UniProtKB/TrEMBL annotation:
Species this chain originates from: Cellulomonas bogoriensis 69B4 = DSM 16987
Family, as annotated: Belongs to the truncated hemoglobin family. Group II subfamily.
Sorted UniProt keywords: Heme, Iron, Metal-binding, Transport
Pfam families referenced in this protein's UniProt entry, alphabetically: Bac_globin
Residues that hold heme according to the record: H121
Record protein name field: Globin
GO molecular function annotation: heme binding; metal ion binding; oxygen binding; oxygen carrier activity
Taxonomy, superkingdom: Bacteria
SUPFAM superfamilies assigned: Globin-like
Length: 136
């Protein structure tokens, strides 16, 4: 990793920014009828913590994610969950709402969004979307 992501984590406000991002994101997931049932735990807080620690590490913050979870291998970790185009689009919609809530300078926002969009596309592991009646 270059020194750029290190300064990115700091430049966007460090932990507080990622906390807020993930807090808003999971508040949206909590009321999403397609995504919410995919999360195995009743409590979304541990999942929120894993996402926050991963993102902090990715952008040059503390390496707590890998200290606790090992190598991210995110595609492998998502294999148990059917991530189709509809799930991906919902995920990105909630991330956009979350990004709106953190109020970053335009370049930082664009950088983060570009990454999240590419990452979400790379996580797709099925092209079957659940039938609207099957995930209620
Ligand atoms: C594209 C749509 C996506 C869906 C529907 C989705 C869904 C899920 C679900 C159901 C889990 C399991 C909850 C848990 O126990 O942590 C999970 C875990 C996780 N996701 Fe996603 N995800 C998506 C994309 C992404 C992307 C783009 C990233 C990263 C930029 C990401 C990062 C993570 C991380 C870090 C974990 C925890 C992995 C672990 O340490 O076990 N996800 N995701």
């Amino acid at each position: 990793m270059t020194s750029e992501p290190q300064s990115f984590y700091r430049a966007v406000g460090g932990e507080a920014t990622f906390r807020r991002l993930v807090e808003v994101f999971y508040a949206e997931v909590a009321r999403d009828d397609l995504l919410r049932p995919m999360y195995p735990e009743q409590d979304l807080e541990p999942a929120a913590q894993r996402l926050r620690l991963f993102l902090e590490q990715y952008w040059g913050g503390p390496t707590t994610y890998s200290d606790q979870r090992g190598h991210p291998r995110l595609r492998m970790r998502h294999a148990p969950y059917p991530v189709g185009p509809a799930a991906r689009d919902r995920w990105l919609t909630h991330m956009r709402t979350a990004l709106d809530a953190v109020d970053l300078p335009p370049l930082a926002r664009a950088t983060l969004w570009d990454y999240l969009e590419r990452a979400a596309h790379s996580m797709v592991n099925t092209f079957d979307d659940p039938h609207p009646l099957e995930h209620r």
